[in-house]
Design brief:
Pdz3 Domain, 2 domains, alpha+beta
Length: about 400
C-alpha cells in the first residue's frame, strides 16, 4: 500500500468519525436535553408561542383598561370656551375720482360682538356642577365662560374661586342633566414609568382629545407663563410625556384605572412631549378649604423680601446662602413689614433673614410665599430667623389681613 492510498484512507476515516460523532451527539441531545424540554408536553416552539401569547394577553388587557378609563371620563371632561365683547369697526374709505387711487380714513366703531378669544379644559368633580380647571384659563374678569360637554350641550359658567398659589380655579354650572364626577385618585404613591392618560380640548378645537404616556418625573419645579405677561413658580409638579397641547390646560391626567392623579397645567415650549400636571392631592386640599371655609384664600405673612442666593450672600456679606431677607421697597409706602400683619405682631424687622418655615428651608425652589401659603388661617408656624447676629425661633399665627 503506497503513501497516497494511506492518506486517502486516513481522510475517509476522519470524515466518517465526524459524521458518527455528530449523529451520536444529536441522539444524546434528543434523548436528554430535548426530552427534558418537552417532558411537560410542550416543544421549544410551543414555549416561545406561550410567551408571545402571554405578552399579547397583557397588551390587550392594558389596551382594554385604557379604553375603559377613557369611556369612564368622556362624560365628565368638558371644554371651557372663553368669549369676550370685542369692538366692531367700519373702515372709512375716501375715494378719488381720478385714477385708481384711494385712501383710508380713520376707522369708525359701530358696536361690539361676542367672539371666542380662547379655550381650555375642565372636569366635573361633583353632581352639583363644580368643575376644576386652571386659573390662567379663567383669569380675565371681563370675559364670559361657557362649558361645553362632549355631546355639544352648553352651559354658562361662573368662576367660584381661584387659588393664588396653585394654578387652579373652580367653576360652577347649573346643569339640567345628570352630572358624572370623575373619581379623584391619589398622587402620593406615583411612580416614574407609570402609564398615564391626558384628556383635553386640544388647540381649543379638538375636544376630548386623548393622549397616552408615562410619568417622566416627579416633584419638578417650573416657571410657567400664561402666554401674556404673567409667570409663576409651580413646585412639586408631575412631568409626563403624554401630549399636552394648547387648550389642554385644566384637563385631567388619569391613571390607567381612570382616576384623576393630576391637573394638566403646562408644556415645555422648547421640547417635545414634556408636559406638567399639578398633583391631585394638592387640589383635594383646595376642595376641602372651599367646602369648609367657603373660599380658598391663603394667609400672608406680611413682609417684603428678597430670596438669598450664593451670589447675593457674597455681594452683601450675608452669613447664609439661602433664606429670605426682609427688605423695604424703593417707594415710601413699600414697607419691609406691613403694620398689623402676623409678621409685625411676631416682631420681625427689616434685615432679618427667614431661614426656615416649620423645618422647611427657604430656597429658590421653595420660596417663602409658597411655604407660608401651604398653611391655613389660624395655623401657628415656627420661623427660624437670623436676627441681629444670632439665630432665633419665632412663632407666628397666620391670619387674614
Amino acid at each position: 500500500m503506497n503513501k497516497k492510498t494511506v492518506f486517502v484512507l486516513l481522510v475517509l476515516l476522519v470524515f466518517c468519525n465526524i459524521i458518527f460523532t455528530t449523529l451520536i451527539g444529536s441522539v444524546v441531545l434528543y434523548l436528554g436535553f430535548g426530552r427534558a424540554i418537552i417532558s411537560d408536553g410542550k416543544g421549544v416552539g410551543d414555549m416561545f408561542l406561550s410567551k408571545n401569547s402571554e405578552m399579547t394577553v397583557n397588551v390587550v388587557r392594558e389596551e382594554s383598561a385604557i379604553i375603559e378609563a377613557v369611556n369612564k371620563a368622556k362624560e365628565s371632561v368638558v371644554s371651557v370656551v372663553i368669549t369676550k365683547d370685542l369692538p366692531i369697526f367700519e373702515e372709512n374709505f375716501d375715494w378719488f375720482w381720478f385714477g385708481d387711487w384711494f385712501s383710508f380714513g380713520p376707522r369708525r366703531r359701530i358696536g361690539t360682538e361676542q367672539r371666542q378669544v380662547g379655550a381650555g379644559t375642565g372636569f366635573i368633580v361633583d353632581k352639583n356642577g363644580l368643575i376644576i380647571t386652571n386659573r390662567h384659563v379663567v383669569q380675565d374678569e371681563r370675559a364670559s365662560y361657557t362649558v361645553v360637554f362632549n355631546d355639544g350641550e352648553k352651559y354658562e359658567a361662573r368662576v367660584l374661586a381661584s387659588d393664588s398659589l396653585l394654578d387652579i380655579a373652580f367653576l360652577k354650572i347649573d346643569a339640567e342633566r345628570d352630572l358624572v364626577p370623575l373619581s379623584l385618585g391619589s398622587s402620593a404613591e406615583l411612580k416614574v414609568g407609570q402609564t398615564v392618560i391626558a384628556i383635553g380640548n386640544a388647540l381649543g378645537e379638538f375636544s376630548n382629545t386623548v393622549s397616552l404616556g408615562i410619568i417622566s418625573g416627579l416633584k419638578r419645579s417650573i416657571v410657567a407663563s400664561d402666554g401674556m405677561s404673567g409667570s409663576e413658580l409651580l413646585s412639586d409638579v408631575i412631568q409626563t410625556d403624554a401630549s399636552i397641547n394648547k387648550g389642554n390646560s385644566g384637563g385631567p391626567l388619569l391613571d390607567i384605572k381612570g382616576n384623576v392623579i393630576g391637573v394638566n397645567v403646562a408644556v415645555a415650549s422648547q421640547a417635545e412631549n414634556i408636559g406638567f400636571a399639578i398633583p391631585i392631592d394638592l387640589v383635594k386640599d383646595l376642595l376641602t378649604r372651599l367646602s369648609q371655609d367657603g373660599s380658598i384664600e391663603r394667609p400672608k405673612l406680611g413682609v417684603r423680601y428678597m430670596l438669598v442666593t450664593p451670589k447675593i450672600a457674597k455681594e452683601e456679606g450675608l452669613p447664609y446662602e439661602y433664606g429670605a431677607i426682609i427688605v423695604k421697597g424703593s417707594r415710601r409706602n413699600q414697607l419691609a413689614v406691613v403694620p398689623g400683619s402676623p409678621a409685625d405682631k411676631a416682631g420681625l424687622q427689616e434685615n432679618d433673614i427667614i431661614l426656615e418655615v416649620s423645618g422647611e428651608k427657604v430656597t429658590e425652589k421653595k420660596p417663602l410665599a409658597n411655604l407660608i401659603q401651604s398653611f391655613r388661617f389660624g395655623d401657628v408656624v415656627t420661623l427660624k430667623v437670623w436676627k441681629k447676629g444670632e439665630v432665633v425661633e419665632v412663632k407666628v399665627k397666620l391670619e387674614k389681613f
